């Protein structure tokens, strides 16, 4: 499952970069053009930016939903296994304390 999430993140990032690159290229062309051609290029650039913004909002919502799901799973685990959770937290705290003390 982790592998799939990494692939999904890579696809989202790649799509966002592509959308921004396309908009940037269109705006560059529009700066060198005049009249109707410049207007058309600016409109296409704005459409590309709008599409990229929408994709970013979808990615943000997906990340929020996955974060909420992780919080629910963790909360359920802590409620079902309180002593194990305390032991894990103590172990993590000990390791972090040792790492900080070494510096």
Automatic annotation (TrEMBL):
Subcellular location per UniProt equals: Cell inner membrane
Q: In terms of one coarse class, where is the protein primarily found? A: membrane
Q: What's one Pfam family the UniProt record gives for this protein?
A: DUF883_C
Tell me a GO cellular component.
Answer: plasma membrane
Specify the protein's topology with respect to the membrane.
Answer: Single-pass membrane protein
Record's superkingdom? Bacteria
Question: What would be an example GO MF term here?
Answer: ribosome binding
Transmembrane stretches in the record are 83-101
Per UniProt, which keywords does this protein have? Cell inner membrane, Cell membrane, Membrane, Transmembrane, Transmembrane helix
Q: Which residues form the DUF883 domain?
A: 21-61, 74-103
Cited InterPro entries: DUF883_C, DUF883_N, YqjD/ElaB
The family classification in the record reads:
Belongs to the ElaB/YgaM/YqjD family.
Q: What is this protein called?
A: ElaB/YqjD/DUF883 family membrane-anchored ribosome-binding protein
Q: Give the source species.
A: Jezberella montanilacus
